Amino acid sequence: MPSPEVIPAVTVSAMPATIINLSYYKFTPLDGLEGRREQLLAACRAQGLKGTILLAPEGINFFLAGTREQLEVVLSLLRGLPGLADLAPKESPSSAQPFKRMLVKVKKEIIAFGVTGVDPARRPSPKLPATELKRWLDEGRPVVLLDTRNEYEVRMGTFRGALAPPIWNFRDFPRAVADLPPELKERPVVMFCTGGIRCEKAGPYMESLGYKDIHQLDGGILKYFEEVGGAHYDGECFVFDERVGVDPALRPTRSVVCFNCQMPLTIAEQRDVRYVYEKSCPHCIDGKPKGRGNTATEAG
Question: Which residues are the active-site residues?
């Protein structure tokens, strides 16, 4: 591994009017992970970026926020990694920095699933563009929309009529799939999540169980919002940062996280008499609900 590139540090004297939020993942073999971790952490800190980069033998998953100039310096470094020359992250703006710190971690998986033999890089399931899904829904095609996200995410918003198995952590997904009606194996299924990464593993896994017509929403809900807006979608999309939720225009909503139990709360839930700032909410007034899981590896 070559020595880390020396990148000039920047001085962040005041928060700029607009922060760019980038998200990206790719399943591509990576080695020398500890050396790459140190190099990327030094570069991100030098540029004043915040967010999380996950590195694993199977690939990379990151969420970064900063000015466009700061981000471009680090993106040029990332494009030098194996398989990332065409790196083109999804982006959305915010008026404030949504992350508290800069982390670069080495993990076993870039999205924790816990099932061996699933290799999205070698055997991906078909992807369906956002514009095509909208056309299908406009036409009223008999398609099953499958939400692979956690219950607290689904509660914030999802596609109209979507099937949402009861899961609290992506590792619960295989168990939830086992409980689905067997006739779904013969029907067209379009699965979706926040940014697409969970479906990269969920799709091939379901195909291995005999599902015959599986599609992934390419780029997830966030890409759908970017390309076609909120058609056929009700509510907002939960995101794993300080914004908590974004609307179909990718603008931060006024949703918050409960200080006590960390559950996301919509505006309507904040008006509930059981919501007391920094004390309780409808989900924990009678005791803390089941935890939100590992947000660092659930995002996407």
Answer: 193
